[in-house]
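Collaborator request, handled under Task 6.
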Amino acid sequence: MFGLPKSTEINKLLSKKAVFEKFKPNANDRKLFDDQISRLAVVTEISPQTVSIAATDDVSAIYIIQVTLKAADCDKKNIALLSKLIDQRMLFDLQFEDIVRFAVYRAERVLVSESKQLDEWKLHLRGLDLGAIWENMIAEIVGIDLTGGKKLDDTIIVNERRDKIIKQIAVLDKKAMNERQPRRKWEYAEEIKRLKLELEELNNG
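Structure tokens returned to the collaborator:
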């Protein structure tokens, strides 16, 4: 599955009821989960037993959890909930019909990949141990560049800030174009200039 070795394939259903009984989410979280998710199953185990790659102190195995959705959307709260309740390294295969997105909880954020047809996804095991493979798989599915020794969590935070700045600049540009008062127009221009300097620093960092 997903281009990974056949030895990693498993099919272990996770009962939603058992998850609820064990971890006892509050009523609102449970309802949101139940409304959007119809089925959970562990479909992949990447571990020393399945791929003969060494574990690390913090990564003993990586699991892919197939999350069968009732509709195309899945609230990020559901992924955060599962990630916090189950103490494992998990990639979530969000599947609606034959369309798949991957999601993962990292740096206290839910990261979601682009959507692809199920058979278009090809994941790779890159790294000398499971710790490196875990980092590289996350980077691969969400399109993060880790060249030059970049740290994954730092890059996630920088990318988020960069995206926020780009959106802020676009909003301020539009406001500046429509503003008639010279002083307010100048203030928008100064704020845009400041944001562009910050963006340049992020890009050069």
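The cover message to the collaborator said: "The helical segments are 16-23, 27-36, 48-51, 76-85, 130-142, 152-178, 182-204. The longest strand covers residues 37-46. Please let us know whether this matches your experimental observations."
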